[in-house]
UniProtKB/TrEMBL annotation, chains A, B:
Protein name: LacI family transcriptional regulator
Keywords tagged on the record: DNA-binding, Transcription, Transcription regulation
Domain of life according to the entry: Bacteria
HTH lacI-type domain boundaries: 4-57
Length: 326, 326
DNA sequence: TTGAAAGCGCTAACAC
DNA sequence: GTGTTAGCGCTTTCAA
């Protein structure tokens, strides 16, 4: 792999290396020279060595994205948003999948912070204090999580939960079961905060069913518990759980939404493909990723260094899994 | 972000930079010196600058993974396999999502081949000749695609197709519809090759229905066409198409598998969550990624440079969407 | 075994 | 507007 260097381009174009550098990075060069250099560079298939450039500029042109699990469509969507935007601004993206392990997460932060211009930390599993200790506030943006002292881009989960409950109440449901996820997670606490707003509502009863794994299997497990309750509707921690619920309810011949309405959270693409199609709270996933990247690179009006806290709106998407109370 | 350099460590340890370098990378140093240097490095939180190291060693310690669409669970699974293995061998992974665009793909290859130690090219959309022109055979491994002249790790699609058809034949089906994907793709041609084996089978008729987009919507579209045919079973291009089929068949009150058996391909995680759970040809996805990485890094018995062609077995996973012919 | 010094490919002062 | 030169942080000859 013999790579062409600035030297080669300079020689071929009959100019100095600095002229080549300037011509290619937008320094002051005469139009004609620039044109010639660009042509030669292109002809030689010249690709600047990012490592060398980074060594001197102090910027690598790369950033890191850390996610708990790429297999989870939610994170895949976030990653898609990041990579798409990165491609547009010609920025490389290191992706680290931590397998839901907080320790791996902290290690990834330690490695990436020295080899990238910044880190996008999506739904980290580590605790606030650990994150604060490991991350550089100047070059870190949290995605779908908020920690005081760090910049973040997150969805308005409380409002999304509110919309979901109001939707069910408007359909005449008076007893709604809430299937919770991992209780110590930030996302879970946010949902609970939304639920809590209805505590004083005399005509509504929220039945906390159980805390399950935020997976299809977790939903299957919750299915029987919900059927054993007096609820006429269920709000699930996320779409995966909702799909598990749907599966178990179908197996027990409980027709959705006649017998029970089901509402999910996140609106992953598969929510629309379930049977019946799932009503779900849509969370901007790819958009959060793109905005986080802009924040990191200081491309928008705000920068990560300012400790920005971006909150994106959520919207309830009504499909066939929710209907009038029977 | 003031990073500690070898200089700092050398000064603090009272030795020269070269000694520090040797102590940390396994050169010949006296045990006592090494111990002291390592201690100081650790105390100072020293993290070697990969860019600077790469500049001189010629190896970056990173590799690139190019996929058409991270949102597609198939590719997310492959990516997961790659990143998991990469973490184990302490290797960074650049992920580039090309959005199914062959041009973006070629650009990604051009950028990454100069800034990584190698490229993992998953199910590329570009043509053989373009790939051969853009990629360096020494440092490129194809995943789920074969191109003469390049190393690859792919599943035995022909055999998987064979298993699916035999399964349906064994269930008594005599007219099987095949819903094809993008006709010019490698994966599609492989499936067709598997189908072709049954041309001479007197007791079996394969009805080519149509070529659709390899998506849920493509499957929905194919649903009506399949119902209009005489087929009693359908083999779909992939699970997404199969799920679209399932959806449309349910909407038209065609019960699966009584009225029609449906078999998908790939066995993505959602195949087990569909209604009814989908019979599908399982393809090693994460394993292909991990093996590809080893090939690239020359960690196994083979290396990419040798032009290895690894073929992984496929297995039919029978679930509720396929049953006896009515 | 250790240190001094020469770069890897590139950009940014600084001269011209 | 263009060329010369000094490094960025690191590894690796080459001497000692």
């Amino acid at each position: 792999m013999v790579r062409t260097t600035v030297q080669d381009v300079a020689r071929a174009a009959g100019v100095s290396v600095s002229t080549v550098s300037r011509a290619l990075t937008g320094g002051s060069v005469s139009p004609s020279t620039r044109e010639a250099v660009v042509a030669v560079a292109h002809r030689l298939g010249y690709q600047p060595n990012r490592a060398a450039r980074g060594l001197i500029t102090g910027r690598t042109g790369n950033l890191g994205l850390i996610v708990p699990d790429l297999r989870n469509p939610f994170f895949a969507d976030v990653a898609k948003g990041v990579t798409a935007r990165a491609r547009a601004v010609d920025c490389g993206v290191f992706i680290s999948d931590t397998d839901e392990d907080p320790v791996a997460e902290l290690e990834a932060i330690a490695t990436l912070r020295h080899n990238t211009d910044g880190i996008l930390l999506c739904s980290p599993r580590a605790r606030d204090a650990e994150l604060l200790a490991a991350a550089d506030p100047e070059n870190t943006v949290l995605l779908h999580r908020r920690v005081p002292g760090l910049s973040s881009v997150a969805a308005d989960i409380v409002d999304g939960t509110r919309q979901a409950v109001r939707h069910l109440r408007a359909l005449g449901h008076r007893r709604i079961a809430y299937v919770s996820g991992p209780e110590d997670s930030w996302a879970s606490r946010q949902r609970l905060a939304g639920i809590a707003e209805f505590q004083g509502d005399a005509e509504l009863e929220i039945l906390p069913v159980v805390s399950v794994a935020p997976t299809f299997d977790g939903g299957v497990l919750a299915g029987d518990l919900v059927l054993a309750s007096t609820a006429t509707a269920v709000l699930a921690y996320n779409d995966l759980v909702a799909m598990g619920l749907l599966h178990r309810l179908a197996a027990r011949a409980a027709v959705v939404p006649e017998r029970l309405s089901v509402v999910g959270y996140d609106d992953i693409s598969f929510a629309a493909m379930s049977h019946p199609p799932l009503t779900s709270v849509a969370v901007p996933k790819d958009r959060a990723g793109a905005i986080g990247l802009d924040l990191l690179l200081g491309r928008g009006s705000m920068t990560a260094a300012q400790g920005a806290e971006v909150i994106l709106p959520t919207t309830l998407v009504v499909r066939a899994s929710s209907g009038p109370a029977g």
